[in-house]
Amino acid sequence: MSDAKQRLLAHLDLQDEVGAFSDEAFERLGVLVEDIRRENVYPAPLDTLDKVFGRWDTTFAHFGGKHSAGKPKVHDSDLKLQSFNRFPAVPIRVTRLCQEISATGNAYNNVIDFTCTDGKTQGVLIVHGRFRPDPDNRQRFHVEFHCTELRPAAGGDEAGLRKALGFAAEQSLKVDLKPPRLHSDVVYLDDEIRINIGGLGGLYLLRRSSDAPVSI
Q1: In sequence order, which residues have a C-beta less than 8 Å from that of residue 204 and are 6 or more positions away?
Q2: Contact of 42 with 190, CB cutoff 8 Å
Q3: Strand partners, 130
Q4: Which of 54, 78, 140, 153 is most buried when burial is the number of CB atoms within 10 A of its CB?
Q5: What is the pLDDT of residue 16?
Q6: 53 in the Ramachandran plot: left (φ > 0), alpha (ψ -120 to 50) or beta?
Q7: d(C-alpha 71, C-alpha 203), whole Å
Q8: Inter-residue contact 203 to 60 (CB < 8 Å)
């Protein structure tokens, strides 16, 4: 493992200890990302898509907006914020953020595991997207999110999830989306970690997961 990667992973472990990055720690993260970019193992991810496909755990996510600055991986949120405003602002506790990318339909899905306010009912929010390769920038994935879906977690059922969220029986658990078209650049990629910088200024660090995808 390179020195730059060791320094980056050690800094990410610091987030686990303190819960969220301070302004100074976030600034330091940016420096470490620039350092590791110089050692990119797969510098043209669109030409090595087999290294991109699969399920990835989000280790750090900064979405570019003020609401996401400094948040730890496990944090309180609501369905409206997580679904591009398509579901009601029902409070949830986000427990895991993953991304699943596949050749099947060029899927580019965000998967949010959450716990309801009753403290026991668990659900999954999937934001389904599709990616389109950029012909001129082989790090750039153009992404269009087209629908969002709520599912009970493994072992649960829809009726229990609806009750915990306060949803009526007729409330749809899957709705179409028409958010702005976005892009995300994979600025670092190896067999273990991936770093993306979004078109709106977001910064995302992900580690490959051994778990099977749930949204594809």
Answers
A1: 58, 60, 61, 62, 99, 184, 195, 196, 197, 198
A2: yes
A3: 107, 144
A4: 140
A5: 62
A6: beta
A7: 13
A8: yes
C-alpha–C-alpha distance, residues 57 and 79, integer Å: 20
- Say what the pLDDT of residue 117 is: 97
Q: Take residue 53 and report the two structure tokens written for it.
A: 């496909």
pLDDT in tens, 58-83: 999 887 654 444 567 788 999 999 99
- The pLDDT tens digits for 86-102 are 999 999 999 999 999 99
CA atoms within 13 A on the CB side of 18: 14
- pLDDT tens profile 11-45: 988 876 556 778 888 899 999 999 999 999 999 99
